Task: structure prediction
Amino acid sequence: MTPKRKRLWLVVGSLAVLGFAATLVLTALNDNIVFFYSPTQIAEKNIPPERRFRMGGLVEAGSVTKSADGQVTSFKVTDTHKTVAVVYRGLLPDLFREGQGVIAEGSLGADGVFLAREILAKHDENYMPSEVAKAIKEAGQWKERK
Amino acid sequence: MVAELGHFALILALAVALVQGTLPLLGAARGDIRLMDLGRTAALAQALLVIVAFGALTQAYVTSDFSVANVVANSHSAKPMLYKVSGVWGNHEGSMLLWALILALFGAAVAVFGASLPDTLRARVLAIQALIGVGFLAFLLFTSNPFERISPPPLDGNGLNPLLQDPGLAFHPPLLYLGYVGFSVTYAFGIAALLEGRVDAAWARWVRPWTLAAWCFLTLGIALGSWWAYYILGWGGFWFWDPVENASLMPWLAGTALLHSAIVVEKRDALKSWTVLLAILAFSLSLLGTFLVRSGVLTSVHAFAQDPARGMFILAFLLLVTGGGLALYAWRAPQLQGGGLFQPISREGALILNNLLLCTLAATVLLGTLYPLFLDLLTGNKVSVGPPFFNATFVPICAPLFAALCVGPYLSWKRAELWPALQRLRLAFIAAVVAAIVAATAIDSRATLAALAFGFGVWLIVGSLLEFGQRLVRTGFRLPPRSALGMTIAHAGLGVVVLGAVATSAWNTELIKTMKPGDTASFAGFNVKLDRIENLQGPNYIAERATLSLSIGGRPYTVMTPERRLFTVQRRQVAETSIHTNLLRDIYATLGEGEAQNGWVIRLYYNPLAPWIWLGAALCALGGFVSLSDRRLRIGAPSRTRAVAQPAE
Result:
């Protein structure tokens, strides 16, 4: 086989693999991107129920209640401007605390309550998820913490 | 005093690195042997100085010297000794110092073991290695000085993040860094080869041990991190497609590709410029991983430092290393002479397919990891790309890779026949199909894809062993070279990982139940009874411990004791899982919050084949080490005659 033919083979093969990968990536990105909204954006955007997304903010102080069996937790998430009620069934991550930043993934119920499927844990309690920090900044309530 | 000594040693190391990064390059260009030899002495001196600096910081941690700001922020006098030591690298500054230490040690290793390298090549490799060192030492000194003092010193420190107070995580960063930084040697070899203008079989043989060593350590580091996440985060999962995990996976994929393409350079003198490109990319991806972790640009479970100045520094360094490397590559690579010709169906062809697929995998991970960042910059939309994306892209591309993996070793160099190779793999194919059918019918009839993936795992194991067995028969049971043995172990190990990952993700069962002492539940064929909940006192935490007794058909089986620890210094709770394993499955218990009135939330998982994930990864690394012990790969074993090794102009 001449070097030219060999190169042609290589190019054709590479293009086929890359095309395959690109198709996979594009379909996967279409279906599997999860958007992040702050409570204010949720109030403005009119997100259809059942659509999966992430939301985040601070867990409002004094809003956390548990069901009798301890498995269902209800709480409110605020960006200091708007507030969204959240219901979560399952074990909370170790760092879940009132007054702390939180990110929840799930969808809105018909009654406007956010049904969380997953509450994200962070390594560091002093860490504010950047999305949450931005949401609070946009609500105009950000105070630099030292 | 000791801290100042460490600081001073670090400054001296930077000065030495500057000398080592310039004069030997000059010497190599001029053919001045004295300037070239300076590189070896400087590399040893630099390593010694960084060891002193690292020792000084360790001393500050071990003796709890709270006049050092870094110790105050990350240590506490009541911490167990193991975590006082591992606390040295459990923070941003210390982990960067560890990085610099390993970099300097690799440089010294090249100086010591590279005696048979041509003078110019060794001088250039050491110089490039030193230039990388300059970047990291400057980064330490100017943005992240671990030796900063604090006045007046507080009585006690803030303690280490409780999640990091764990034996698994104590050794995860050093192993991971050995992998990341090991690729710096490959990078240095690649750049040096471009400067020399020649890449040949000898070069490939010199580079391969370093690549292999780095790859083994990276494999172990990733496996240890995944194991840690499995048992400490309490979610029962082993891989979360978190940006930080992806950051370590990308260099691993590129490194794996490099490992294989270097074989082609060594054996067939082909794929030269591609291999050099991979050497540049593997280290660039390592640096990118560091940038992602250290700058906090991505939301991740590892949210350590979030200092824009540090992020900018690493970004600039990343651009310099990658951009500089690629520019040099674009300029010099066309001069590299292409070697042996081959047919598409051949060992070379199979290794090219391997490289193509591995690089595509790395590109997919890169895209998924950086996409949220780009979208945020371009549109301001905040998105996250999670496991569904990676499952939908990564897994399908793995299928052809795994399918071809067993066939490759059967193909001969230059030209080969596909059909005879496939015929000899008949047994593996039958085993895989049977395994897939059994999985699809007997275990879980809904998870068809999982059954298929399970079949692939069996295919990998049986196919690799079959090739090895047939080779033994062919050679009259003479042990093949260690590199072939290593290949078989590593390939079969990959199959073991696949089986473990598939079984754990697809066929696990989970139970979440609120229980009071005395309550029972039935789970995965076991009868689970919560005997009691008690409070206990650890060295630096207080804990609630549940005692769960498991029995089968009335006979006691085992007792599990998950805990919830409250670390008193940080006021943080950490769940301590309890895992019972028999190497075929894990029973995994965590204790949630609760009180006497309503009971405690208990979470139980039954994870079939879960230990195989880490066992398989360990096998892969073992395969690498076995291959590394091959005589032909021993560093310095091959020698290019000195006369030829003049600067290529």
Q: What stands out?
A: Chain B touches chain A through 54 residues (CB under 8 Å). The mean pLDDT of chain B is 88.
